[in-house]
Amino acid sequence: MDNVIGLEIIEVVEQAAIASARWMGKGDKHMADQVAVDAMRNRLNQIHMRGRIVIGEGERDEAPMLYIGEEVGICTRPDAAQYCNPEELIEIDIAVDPCEGTNLCAYGQPGSMAVLAISEKGGLFAAPDFYMKKLAAPPAAKGKVDIRNSATENLKILSECLDRAIDELVVVVMKRDRHNDLIQEIRDAGARVQLITDGDVSAALSCAFSGTNIHALMGIGAAPEGVISAAAMRALGGHFQGQLVYDPAVVMTKEWANRTREGNLEELKRAGITDPDKVYEAEELASGETVLFAACGITPGMLMKGVRFFKGGARTQSLVISTQSKTARFVDTIHMFDKQLKSLQLY
């Protein structure tokens, strides 16, 4: 799977990023997301595969494209028999976020990117549209920190694993009212806090790379993005754990103002989740034998530059990670829109 579609998924995230970047700074997060969805879906449908969206833009009645359960790829076409040999057919599950950090893109802030993760059929956890408590940490701390510990305990363990004083550690936390106590605990323990408004996939990913000065991600974010983060962290050997959150009093969002704890538990039960308090390891959220992750910067971020337009083209920077080849590749691409373009502007 890595050899067959590894390069093509880079083009999928590149096309989504370029489309969304045209709306960067225009204040319209919905349009920034919609054009990314269109571009990503169009490119996915050009790949020789049968793909199924397990994490996408929502249920079918809420999202006309890249909805959960939608099939994409050449081998899903009515005339697929002309192109696809059943004995060689690649069936994969796909988790997508065409514009991760829509607000970041809309307001020209750093950290927005187009991301996806793929695995063989059944290899990605079909996370419900719930919230998830998350803990990400560098490979050196894998299996040593634990989401069931207090933040203070994990910071002490992280300090030992990385051979750093606690006051040298930086923890990324989303700026939400629900995290006020967590932020205070981290600060009281002596560590530093980097607050973000959106985009915790990028924050989790940064934990796995030395030199980013990001040493942990803590707090509650969206569960679907947790699966995408887990796919990347599994491939990189980093630590990631997630635990679904179903109590509106804990989440503290307007979106859940009319929901109840009991109602959410019933919804999880209907989704086949019998243990709502289960702690999921990265290997459970992304359990496939082969897992690929790809991202392309829309706006500049910790690991990748954003899309840069020039006369007749654009330049992108992407990252593709594979459990099969055990590689993390940074890809710098010049896209030539103008066929008459005579020189590449390398800046």
Structural notes for this entry:
With 347 residues, the protein is an alpha+beta fold. Helix content is 30%, strand content 26%. It is built from 10 helices and 14 strands. Strands 1, 2, 3, 4, 11, 12, 13 and 14 form an 8-stranded mixed beta sheet that branches. It has a 6-stranded mixed beta sheet with strand order 7-6-8-5-9-10, with helices on both faces.
> Which class do the helix and strand fractions yield?
alpha+beta
Helix content: 25-40%
- The level-1 CATH class of the largest domain: Alpha Beta
The rounded Rg comes to 20 Å
Average pLDDT level: 93
Q: What is the distance, rounded to the nearest whole angstrom, between the alpha carbons of the first and last residues?
A: 34 Å
Number of helices: 10
Oligomer: single chain
Shape: globular
**Biggest sheet details:** 8 strands, mixed
Named CATH topology of the largest domain: Fructose-1,6-Bisphosphatase, Chain A, domain 1
Q: How many β-strand stretches?
A: 14
Number of domains: 2
Describe the structure concisely.
The protein has 347 residues and is of the alpha+beta class. It folds into two domains: 2-121 and 290-336, Fructose-1,6-Bisphosphatase, Chain A, domain 1, CATH 3.30.540.10; 131-285, 3-Layer(aba) Sandwich (D-Maltodextrin-Binding Protein, domain 2), CATH 3.40.190.90. 30% of the residues lie in helices and 26% in strands.
